[in-house]
Amino acid sequence: METVVFAVLNGVIYGLLLFMLSSGLTLIFSMMGVLNFAHASFYMLGAYFAYTLMEGSNFWIALFIAPVLVGLAGMVVERYGLRKVHARGHVAELLFTFGLAYLIDEVVKIFWGRTAVNYKVPELLDFPLFTLYGAQYPAYRIFILLVAILMLVALWYLLRRTRAGLIIQAALTHPHMVGHLGHNVPMIFMMVFGAGCALAGLAGVIGGNYFITDPAMAVQMGPIVFVVVVVGGLGSLEGAFIAAMIIGLLQTSAVSINASLADIFGFLGLAGTSEVGGITIASMAPMLPFLLLVVVLMVRPTGLMGDREV
Amino acid sequence: MTDMTTTYVDLAPSRAEKFRQRVLPMILFALALAVIPLFGPSRSTLTLLNHMGINIVFALSFNMLLGRAGMLSFGHAVYLGLGGYFCVHVMNWIAADTGIWGAVPIFTMPAFGFGAGALAGAVIGWPSCRRAGTPFAMISLGVAELVAAAGFMFDSLFGGEMGISADRMGGPEFLGLSLGPLNEVYWYIAFWTFVGVVGTYAFTRTPLGKLSEATRDNPERVEFVGYNPQRVRYLVFIFAGAFAGMAGGMSAVQDEIFTPENLSLVPSGAILIAAYVGGIRYFTGPIMGAIVMTYMGSNLSDYTAGWLLYLGLMFVGVVMFVPDGIAGVVYGTWDVLRSGRLNEVAAGWAIRLLGLALMAVSTITLVEVAFRWSDGYGEVFEPFGLELAHGSPLTWVVIVLPFVIGALLLRRVARSESEVTS
Amino acid sequence: MLAIRDLHAYYGKSHVLHGVNMEIMPGEVIALLGRNGVGRSTTAKAIMGEVSPIGSIRFKGQEISGLANHKIARLGLGYVPESRDIFPAMTVRQNLLLGIKDMRRPGKWNIQQMLDMFPNLARRADNPAGVLSGGEKQMLTMCRTLMGDPDLIIIDEPTEGLAPLIVQQVGDMIAEIAKAGVSILLVEQKLSIALRIADRVYVMGHGEIVYGGTPDDFATRDDIRKEWLEV
Amino acid sequence: DTIKMAFIDPLSGAMASSGEPALQSFMLAAEHINANGGVNGDDIEIVGYDNKVSPKESLVQLQKAIDSGARYIIQGNGSSVASAIIEAVNKHNARNPGEEVIFFNYAAVTPAFTNEACSFWHFRFDAHTDMKMNAITDWVAKRDDIKKVYIIGQDYVHGEAVAAAAVSQLKEKRPDIEIVGNELHPLAKVKDFTPYVQKIISSGADAVITGNWGQDMTLLVKAAADAGQKIPYLTFYGGSNGAVAALGEGAVDTLYQVSEGVTNLEASDEQYAMIEEYKERFPQYDYYYDRAFTTLQMFDAAAEKAGSVEPIAVANAMEGLEVDAAYGPATMRAEDHQLQQNLFVTTVAKDVKYGVDNTDLGWRLVDGGKISAEAASTPTTCQMERPE
Amino acid sequence: MSNEALQLIDLKKSFGPAKIIQGVNLQVAKGERHAIIGPNGAGKSTLFNLISGRFLPTSGEIWLNGDKISGKKPFEINRMGLSRSFQVSNIFTNMTVRENVRCGVLYSMGYGYSFWRNIGNLREVSEKTAAILEDVGLIDKAHLPATLLPYADQRTLEIAITIAGGAEVILLDEPTAGMSHSETDRAVALIEKASQGKTLLIVEHDMGVVFNLADRISVLVYGEIIATGTPEEIRGDPKVREAYLGEEVEEGVPA
Ligand SMILES: Nc1ncnc2c1ncn2[C@@H]1O[C@H](COP(=O)(O)OP(=O)(O)OP(=O)(O)O)[C@@H](O)[C@H]1O
Ligand SMILES: Nc1ncnc2c1ncn2[C@@H]1O[C@H](COP(=O)(O)OP(=O)(O)OP(=O)(O)O)[C@@H](O)[C@H]1O
Ligand SMILES: CC(C)C[C@H](N)C(=O)O
Ligand SMILES: [Mg+2]
Ligand SMILES: [Mg+2]
Known about the structure:
The structure holds five protein chains of five kinds. Chain B has helices at 15-35, 43-69, 77-96, 109-128, 133-153, 155-158, 182-204, 207-217, 219-223, 229-255, 265-278, 285-303, 307-321, 325-338, 342-375, 393-421, and strands at 164-165, 257-258. Chain B is mostly helical. Chain B has two domains: 15-325, Orthogonal Bundle (ABC transporter involved in vitamin B12 uptake, BtuC); 341-421. In chain D, α4 (129-142) packs parallel to α5 and α10 (290-306) crosses α11. The longest helix of chain D is centred in the N-terminal third of the chain and has 20 residues, at 16-35. Chains in contact: A-B, A-C, A-D, B-D, B-E, C-E. The interface between B and D is medium-sized, with 22 and 26 residues. Bound molecules: adenosine-5'-triphosphate (2 copies), leucine and magnesium ion (2 copies). Chain A: Keywords: Amino-acid transport, Cell membrane, Membrane, Transmembrane, Transmembrane helix, Transport.
């Protein structure tokens, strides 16, 4: 029982963080068709900016300023980089962001060193909220939960309920027509990219101290964010949310399971002493999301909730 | 008088032309490979050359996918890795002298890698080649992560963190090569690099090779001339896997170890960069890319801590401004030289070169100063006796001024050129 | 209002417009005629910045060639493309909403007026635009363009592929718009409509204007019709 | 002349916090030796090569190091890497007679390297897993309140060796103890240990044994602290950068480590001066790798004894050599090239001379925590092949 | 029965709720040149897409030379002897003209997915390719990349690829769209020659071409064939005049 409760609690928190990270990518990917490989790098920037801002001010200021800074960085990247390669198609865009990820990694190392920085949870939130089955539950995780839900609602509102959201959506399929109606499409794209990056930055501010802020954080989160977005389905915020949750729960609960493959498939004659039988579910946790990705793409190329092929 | 037996216009290039365009470069390439040892390369040079050979074959196999068939793979290292792993196992069987293995020369490893890579391509390609475009790219990414993760789980196959090592000095000698010292390994690598280059080139000349290009350009139309584009992609994928596996076999002998990281996204990304920087639209592009990137990857780090940053900058620069890569520049220059238009463009080129050089000066200064500042050891960047501390105004002059001038020069050339063409 | 001088345009290497000259006065309705593929749509696209124009295009005295398409639109040029490009997933009302350039400065048309003018649309106001019939889509595109308060509308083949009855309706609507003082450049093939509402007629052939005159004059020019319009 | 020594370890990425302080320790040690006249008059130069804890990358770096003239290789972070280097060095020396290189292993503790897989070219300056585990299990054996033990480690040779040693030694010394968990997690990839800690909590363990190091150590105790867990963590590398800071006061009497010495042990004034100099030079880290200093001290002594800095001569001279290290005598056993030295079980306490991680908490010897070199020693199965 | 090259039986196609093809029945005899005309959006291209396997019919059957082809993949249908062109040029843009045509030739000459032969040594393939280029008049431009061709030549290349495989049944979708008078005449001559002894199904808006070329004409309006007959019959059919040709008659009479 307690295993289940903890697995769910942790899975949900991890899932929400994944969602925060991937919502920005969903936004960019679905609005502009750009597969932003550097997305996790903007997540990293968020964490580092917050760390630096916290030295001079406090967490709450960083929580607002850092994502804005990351968003501005994203806008600059769009304006002077992406826009130039846009005409040459999605592969060029993708490669551009691929290279950008390398660059951001290196620049981060210059400014903040090659090892982890001590970016800490704010003291105000650094207390155990309640105790469950003998383990304390830190308040910060509930804070993550709240921010993520807030973000989901705000994004959903922005996309579905405002005219700006309508323009963005129309611009994806009919960029020229939207331009002829007098809307500045390049500008919109720049804003969308900036907003997406800012969301990644926000996830960085919040995730950086929950996990660890080091130059490897981008590389480690990068692929999994793609999994979330693609599995969820292109352009589908709901899909990204569901996929993030599934992956969060899947990975966390896999770690909590003590069984090995032999225990599960034992009746098929798989011996615990064989190598395959000896593999534990817990050790399979890192590969589960990718298994999910491959299976989903093969069965449903539109993703769980998407309406377009990736 | 015209030859009456020819009832059609022979469009194929003449014999002489064929020789000049196809055979001659291969002969020159073989010659170059054969001549290099005469310079008495040091051990480090030999290591570098061997890695270049491996990466040339690897990059060419990658480009069978991206450049030729338009399939962007983020997991091509999987096939090099699986081919290489298989060869490492074979080398250990040879060393153990079990069954017939004792009679197999280590020299033949790339052939085994070729087979293993093809098999891996056939198995993994079956599901993944059913999709093209971005779904294919994403699947390849997922597969790479999956295989790499599996690499850490199945110790008896992949050796876990430690990987699996082998000794290249087992089995019967072939062509008198013990493969112990590096200069003997060089001959081995040179031989197989040549085989790889000829093989991948020959592939482009086959009906399937041509069809893969057609499928890249217009998969839909291919269906209406009788081909199944999925089938075309799948077959190309198997061949790309096979040649990657061959590179794996070369690497197994050179490095004598394979670890699960060999299967991961990192080497896959590196070869993508190498091929792209070299120029994916040209057959020789990946070769140039592999040579340049291998050199930079292994030697640049000796000169500067910022080598990764330089690589990143170079890649982004190529993506943004030189989409045809190094090969594009080389061929473009060559065309101009040959057609004797050098004097027309010389001025523009000179200005452009100057602009680029100025921008490079300022970028290098910035990076070097930044890295020294970041190290915190108080070291100062001192090019040509100039003292450029991060705090000194001179430093910032050297960073800002050339950049601005260079950018202005480049813009001017770009503008005047676009006027000429319109 | 609009003055085009020596306009050229290319698709890649193929040269489509070979020096187009034309003028539109305020309040005028101009019909641009010509056979399939002579470059009428391309002219419209060049004006709107969809294909890059070479030459001079002045709108209200300002040079607009080379401007970004939203800037051209904001100067008061409306465009109804051949492909119509409604936003199918959005409702009719949302489509109209997107026609407004600046929410803070509403133009002389509002959504209610539009719906009043076209009961067909009013009935479908909250349906996704994708389910509309061809004629309704055409009306919607024109209304959407009007929401942006343009001074000149370029309409490309509004009646293409429409049933005769609807062709009639669309014709009436264009006449209505013209009455409200908006200039119109109508790219048409159907002579009946063009001649009914146009103040002046241009005929295009092989990327050039080969004739310009009033409908009455045009009616007398059998030679032009034979050479440039009939198949 | 300079004697080039190649230091091949992670200098970037998750495990750099382990590699960097070690490099700094070796550099400081080399500086001191050079300042005292060098090794037979030659200066030592330490050159760092970043291997990202990857065996394959290490071999590439090794090749580069050898090509650039290094005849001494230093490595420690990761037994998987060490194993690859041992093999590569063996091969290199066999293929290139006259250009032999020697491998100084300062931290890779898998027992095999000085047992079945021992090599003449390899010297280990850290006590190996079985030796360290002996110290830990002795301590556990004395604590009757410990009934359930959880073993967690990194999924590679080292983690496996730690688990195996813990299981077999506990069975021998305290058959009544139940091992309630024996888990391996991926090396340097886990970002959040919360699920693992929760598993430990629900297993009802009274103590945890772990061989984790680097980021894996820090994050593990961080997660334990977040969950409010307060049971002894018996570690090899509780001294990893940041671990004490993560636990804060909670580290007192919960975090234990076994090592060849800690800064708060009784020592000479020169040693205290060295500790302070280190902190001043590298404020980001604490003096931790005492064996780095021992390694170079021993090299210096061996070179002097051999009258040469040639690898084979130095290696021969090093066999059986004894030096006075900071925390007691250290002898290089000739049969297996395993350094024999005192071990200390320490825990975190408040009132100490040197705090770590910029806190006032530091490492203090537990009662009866000193294990003499003889007691720590284990027999070897090494059959060493020596060059003639 | 086997005299029918192509037979459509109650063919229907819907996209979601939109019924685009609503029960088309059509027989095209071997060797016949059959034209399909109709207003924009009537479903002509859709019909071609159904026949050539690009779309799956919602219901109904398609038979080619006595074999059922509905439900088969485009490449299977092509191998059974049916080839089509596209309304929008659909060529291999990065390859040369010669390579384009060669792609059309290869499969039919038995070099499917061959990867053990040097394409340059396939003499028959080169001959056939050259012959086709000669026929369509692109031989001088054989070594140009296809993108660099002028528009009309691209349309010609489109036809060349279509006929290259030697299919017995050829579908051409508005082959002369966008061509000038003289270009159109050349194209018509080419089509005439290429369809010699073959079955041709053609969609055209240019009535000159249609009446010139076709043995029989079908008129498609809103997804239904409202009339089929010889050019004379069609010209005289009041229904057709009303639905399609009508405007032409009206044309020239100012309102
Ligand atoms: N995107 C394009 N790429 C290449 N050529 C094009 C493109 N669009 C149009 N063309 C060609 O340019 C020429 C002019 O096209 P345009 O669309 O302006 O003709 P139009 O007079 O409007 O005829 P239509 O009745 O077809 O609308 C035609 O030959 C057409 O085929
Ligand atoms: N994939 C699709 N999804 C939805 N509707 C479609 C699709 N393809 C075609 N249609 C619709 O089917 C109708 C018929 O299109 P089709 O292209 O067959 O017309 P056509 O007769 O060839 O016209 P044209 O003479 O203009 O080429 C059009 O209304 C079109 O919008
Ligand atoms: C750096 C060390 C902690 C390495 C570890 N002891 C190992 O053997 O792998
Ligand atoms: Mg048009
Ligand atoms: Mg059509």
